[in-house]
Specification:
The chain is an alpha+beta fold. Helix content is about 50%, strand content about 25%. It has a four-stranded mixed sheet with strand order 2-1-4-3. It has a four-stranded antiparallel sheet with strand order 7-6-5-8. A hairpin with a 2-residue loop joins strand 5 and strand 6. The chain is elongated, with a radius of gyration of 44 Å.
Length: about 240
């Protein structure tokens, strides 16, 4: 009798559970349908509002497939990522402390080329090809005195990589026509080397008693071929 009564209770409880579950599921489905319908309507209203305000233009398409849009976004993101990876993989050669440095020197007059391997200069380490070329151009614009006197006419890159760099200097002493340069500074004659920036001698010779023509010449600067000509001019100005 007790077993029969327990069975009746169990069946009743199970039936009620099934009934409540079914009611809950049907309510959930109805609520989800209503939410989706409202969402579609709100989306259409938003698109219409943006179009009316000129903030959105649809090229003849009134509906957008969400799946296609998501796929398009994913493809765009992937393309961007691939592009970033491609850029990152493009590695520019620079000079390293381990780069083998070779300096070539060519004398135009004798036609002789010399070549020697040297320690990599510290001022070149870390530079790429364009930066090295810029350094060489700046070097030629502001030559050290010894390079000017030897007649350096070009300094160029012959080979560039992280493993090897070869630079070439070309000299022509015949290009050094004038070894000295005279110029008036603060009322006195100063003798420079031919590079016009390195002082050879502060002569102490005043321009006060020179003719107006000579003073103007010295103000502009006078090129002097060699030491003999330099001493002859200074003797003439000081007499």
């Amino acid at each position: 009798m007790k077993i029969k009564k327990a069975l009746v209770y169990f069946i009743s409880f199970f039936s009620l559970s099934v009934m409540f579950s079914a009611c809950y599921y049907l309510s959930y489905k109805n609520a989800l349908r209503d939410f989706n319908e409202n969402a579609v309507e709100r989306n259409k209203e938003l698109i219409l509002s943006l179009e009316n305000n000129g903030l959105l233009q649809l090229d003849g398409r009134q509906e957008t497939n969400t799946g296609d849009a998501e796929t398009s976004v994913k493809e765009t993101v992937q393309d961007t990522a691939d592009a970033d990876v491609a850029v990152d993989t493009v590695k520019e050669d620079i000079i390293l402390p381990t780069t083998q440095y070779t300096l070539q020197t060519y004398d135009i007059i004798t036609g002789v080329t010399n070549e020697e391997e040297l320690p990599t200069p510290s001022y070149l380490i870390g530079l790429n090809r364009e930066e090295v070329i810029q350094y060489l151009n700046d070097y030629m614009q502001d030559l050290p005195l010894n390079e000017f006197q030897k007649g350096l006419v070009s300094f160029e890159v012959m080979l560039f990589s992280e493993d090897n760099i070869v630079l070439k200097k070309t000299y022509n002493e015949d290009k050094v026509v004038y070894q000295y340069f005279l110029k008036e500074q603060n009322g006195y004659i100063v003798a420079y080397y031919g590079d016009q920036k390195t002082v050879f001698d502060y002569t102490g010779v005043s321009v006060e008693n020179l003719s107006e023509y000579e003073q103007q010449q010295l103000k502009n600067g006078i090129y002097v071929k060699d030491l003999d000509e330099l001493y002859a001019l200074l003797e003439n100005y000081s007499s």
